[in-house]
Amino acid sequence: MTGSSKLSILAAALMLSTFGSTSLARAAPNEQFFPLATYRVGAYASSGIPVWAGMIDYLRYINEVEGGVNGVKFVWQECESEWTAEKGIECYERFKKGLDGAPVAIYHPNGAPAAYALSDKAAADRIPLITLGYGRTEATDGSVFPHNFPVMLTFYSEASVFINYVAQQEGGFDKLKGKKIATVYHDSAYGRETQGPLDLLAKKYGFENIQIPVADPGNEQSAQWRQVRQAKPDWVFLRTWGVSTPVAIKTAARFGFPANRIVGDIWASSNEDVLPAGDAGKGYLALTPYPGGAEFEIHKRIKQHILDKGKSDLKDPKSFGSVYYNSGLINAAIAVEAIRAGQKKFGNRPLTGDEGRWGLENLNVDDARLKQIGFHGLMQPLKLSCNDHEGGGAAKVQQWDGAKWNLVTDWVHADRKTLRPLIDAKSAAYAKEKGITPRDCSKES
Amino acid sequence: MNQLVHRLPKPFDNAPLEIVPHRVPWGLSGLAVFAFFAVPWLGSDYWLNAILIPFLVLSLAGLGLNLLTGYAGQTSVGAAGFMAVGAFATYGLLLRVPGLPLPVALIGGGLIAAAVGWVFGIPSARIKGFYLMVTTLAAQFFLEWVFTKFPWFYNNASSGTISAPRLELLGVDLSSPVGRYLLTLVTVALLTWVAVNLVRSQIGRNWMAIRDMDTAAAVIGIRVERDKRRAFAVSSFYLGIAGALWAFAYLGTASAGSFDINRSFQILFIIIIGGMGSIAGNFIGAAFISLLPIVLSYAGQALLGGSVDAGQIQNLQKMIFGTLIIWFLVKEPDGLVRLIASLREKLAVWPLRF
């Protein structure tokens, strides 16, 4: 019976520790809870870990150097979501009531499955979700999706930014006529999302739109790149992710397609995507709303106050300024600025979800403000409203030189006016399906 | 010709009317009363949304797979594929047939899943064991592919996801956590009751005979192929309804990715850990698989949160979880349900063991 008694001791210890002891992060009355649904294990952990470091370092910087947001400090706790919907829901339910009295103003689902699953739940609980670079594109229409914020760059805008970049390179939109533009995409919901906008843009500018799917996981792509070689496209838009990105770059090199004619999308734009491709990745282009680099003003501040004092969450100092670390900084900064905006209306105190939503919808981070907070050049100006939950719609194009990313353009803006009817049609279909009456944005203050 | 008269022994007047004495299942009834009446009052959103609903749905999915694997002996790793059929079919019915009541849509989704399961059960007439497992693996990948490839299934949504259109019954809105919990509980309770009776019926006995030795089953006159296909259909019906509940009562949304091969394995682990060929085992296994990681996560947060690197805490939890699974299976290969039963037997004679 030793086995059972050992087990019962273990079980008792687990029970005790669950209900008995207290959390280390105990919130004071004047604190804002910043829930962190992270993924530190599983297939995507390697890209996640620098993101959480960026978020935590920025929150630490705000707390310790700036004394919080108007005196309201942040308190945070992690929950492992494993990039899945069900763990993501568990984390959200665990966190939505706040932490020891510190309320939740803004929630980052951190992962597409969780973002979709939480969309309705967050609307019922009136907690806004920030999904930077993923999530429902049609949630741009805040009248139907009041609590979803696909800020900065949706997949539609991403497609448009790519076409606008190509037009820049070719010397104008009129030069696009007759050009061949291929999209090599991960055959999933994420990969298919740009088909609609590219179709529309192909009709508008008269280029030939070639779509080539790569089945998941995409670690063998000879067939696809043979197809590319036969089609002889002028440009390739690479919308892969995970292992399929380095494989695509390597296979393209094998088939003699030049890397500097391939533009990776937001999820194919990190250091981790190109490093495994080795020399084949030299010259590879990628568009991103959060470019890599550690020379921005905010990096100097964080290095001085957090990194050099050994307070950083970063385990590998080489990741400082990597694409994913910077995405963590920007994600946290948007939330912090939204809370600041909300405090202007509701007073300098911790905000609730509803007040956080108001803050997001009235967020206006212009160039002057970006300079103040040290994000100039790293983050695009962002102005959200009830009608527009995306805001920016711009990305920079960066090029890999074999060791690091170099920016080759300034912000390239998407042609959001052309795409908006597509988004409105999708959100109207969603509203009809769910029986939602869109709110009147002209009455929102 | 001699007239051979078959004579049965005369019934004794005092013969027991029931072979197994009928006992009132007080414990189970108490649990049901608690689950139906106390839990909706006591449970917080967290308990309902994050713990009880997924636990119940996973139990139902385990039940579905257990009918096929534990009772009929046909190994399948395509459980999640059939769940996906149920989810997408229910969604399609609710979307495209106006005014269809929710229970009808659920049953319709289950029936469509059953039809698909029947089709994928056809190879079971010719192949067995690991080879059959490979065909169910093919079903898994094929179904996942279908629900990504054809936008018609998800109403051409740009993101490829489906979401619960309307959860209402007789004008009562079921979209609140309590509503979704009760919907799940009623469905699971009804289907469990059906399953308990099914495995005691002729069909269930046929399945068990096939599981134990299909040649012998054929010899005694069981139509093995038909019953195997039936097992596939019934199992898929259960899985389909579980899939629809997973998508609409639990997640609120789903895509083909919600029903990937990992989900199939999760359900297979539920029945292996809970106990093959047992109804209660599914519930125990689902509790183990879905609740233990949450307990470990709280324990990790409370014991080590802040002092140890967060990534290492997560990895440590995974290790403890895996070790516990191995430990349980070494201790009792027949699953937790057997472990509990033998524990009960031991306790009944404690401390006077013979």
Give an account of the 3D structure.
Chain A contains 15 helices and 14 strands. Chain A is α/β, with parallel strands linked by helices. In chain A, strands 5, 6, 7, 8, 9, 12, 13 and 14 form an 8-stranded mixed beta sheet that branches. In chain A, strands 1-2 form a two-stranded parallel sheet. In chain A, strands 3-4 form a two-stranded parallel ribbon. In chain A, helix 2 links the parallel strand 1 and strand 2. The longest helix of chain A is centred in the last third of the chain and has 24 residues. Chain B has 354 residues and is mainly α. In chain B, the strands form 2 sheets. A two-stranded antiparallel ribbon of chain B has the order 1-4. A two-stranded antiparallel sheet of chain B has the order 2-3. In chain B, strand 2 and strand 3 form a beta hairpin. Chains A and B meet through helix 1, helix 2, strand 2, helix 3 and helix 4 of A and helix 2, helix 11 and helix 12 of B.
The percent range for helix content of chain A is: 40-55%
- What is the oligomeric state here? heterodimer
Overall pLDDT confidence of chain B: 86
What is the percent of helical residues of chain B? Answer: 55-70%
Q: How much beta of chain B, percentage-wise?
A: under 5%
Shape of chain A: globular
* SSE string of chain A: HEHEHHEEHEHHEHEHEHEHHHEHEEEEH
Q: Give the number of helices of chain B.
A: 13
Summarize, please:
The complex is a heterodimer of chains A (445) and B (354). Chain A has helices spanning 2-19, 45-64, 85-95, 112-125, 155-170, 189-192, 195-205, 222-231, 244-254, 271-274, 297-307, 323-346, 353-361, 367-373, 416-434, and strands at residues 31-38, 73-80, 129-130, 148-149, 180-186, 208-214, 235-239, 262-264, 285-288, 364-365, 382-383, 394-400, 405-407, 412-413. Chain A is an alpha/beta fold.
